[in-house]
Amino acid sequence: MLTDLLGFPPQVLFGQLLLGLINGAFYAVLSLGLAVIFGLLNIVNFAHGALYMLGAFAALAAAKWLGISYWGALIIAPIVVGAFGIVIERLLLRRLAGVDHLYGLLLTFGLALVIEGTFVKLFGSSGMPYSTPASLQGGVNLGFMFLPWYRGWVVVASLAVCLATWLLFERTKIGAYLRAGTENPKLLQAFGVNVPLLTTLAYGYGVALAAFAGVLAAPITQVNPLMGSNLIIVVFAVVVIGGMGSIVGAVVTGLAMGVIEGLTKVFWPEASATVIFVVMAIVLVLRPAGLFGKAS
């Protein structure tokens, strides 16, 4: 009956919805990192895709050269890449404090090209495989599709990290300091708070989120230097839809756009690559600040 109504088996619809949720989990974590960086530092971080790629390469290098497992890489890679992000903030981005957003965008865009170009030169543009951990191999038959355990883990891990980030920035003293620092940094510093250190750590945390997403993606996609550039435009569209700097907007919109993309692949496959940008255009016309953003 349902097959006659839809014109195709319902298993196809349910399967694409689940795959869309998995893609949305990646969008959510990457968008969250961008939202943290823009919301707290007012930097449009176009290097986010390259840093996501660095996370995947850090996991691959840790496994090949140091014998570090996937579970160790989930912790070590975000720390290492986050530390690299701190160096970027201290040496480069801090010099652009107080100037137009365009300068930060151009700097991070150039930085992304340098990082990606260096890795293409060293490793080539073809992908390299990263093994799924043994404990997450296999899957479960849901009736309408076979769900690999690893893809289910990606959704769970992404939602856990998003929730932890929201709690950190909305329910802790450090989060209160960071939000206050974006409103009136001079007043906060007058109370003895080291605002430059807080902003540096916030940038490092946003970069670490990108690296964490890169480690999650490594067993699913081929690890290659251009994996971030293929994704970053979509992630920026998600951030714009949710509202630049909105943590809740990044998470909710990331998951929703993944599901909408999955549905579009069922009902109108030709539009699946552009549906997110159509939604972005409609949202910008009706609500320029984004769904969860605040008008300036």
Quick overview:
By secondary structure, the protein is mainly alpha-helical. Helices cover 71% and strands 2% of the residues.
Which key phrases capture this entry?
globular; ABC transporter involved in vitamin B12 uptake, BtuC; 296 residues; 2 strands; mainly alpha
How would you sum up this structure, described in words?
There is one protein chain. The chain is mainly alpha-helical and 296 residues long. The chain has one domain: ABC transporter involved in vitamin B12 uptake, BtuC (Orthogonal Bundle). It is 71% helix and 2% strand. It contains 12 helices and 2 strands. The protein has a two-stranded antiparallel sheet with strand order 1-2. Strand 1 and strand 2 form a beta hairpin.
DSSP summary: helix tally: 12
Low-confidence stretches: none
End-to-end span in angstroms?
A: 51 Å
Total strand segments: 2
Overall pLDDT score:
87
**Considering DSSP H and I runs of 4 or more, what fraction of the residues is helical?**
over 70%
| Order of strands across the main sheet | 1-2
Largest sheet: 2 strands, antiparallel
* Annotated CATH architecture: Orthogonal Bundle
Radius of gyration: 20 Å
CATH fold-type name = ABC transporter involved in vitamin B12 uptake, BtuC
Supply the number of structural domains. Answer: 1
User: For the record, what CATH class applies?
Assistant: Mainly Alpha
Strand content: under 5%
**Shape estimate:** globular
H-E order? HHHHHEEHHHHHHH
Structural class: mainly alpha
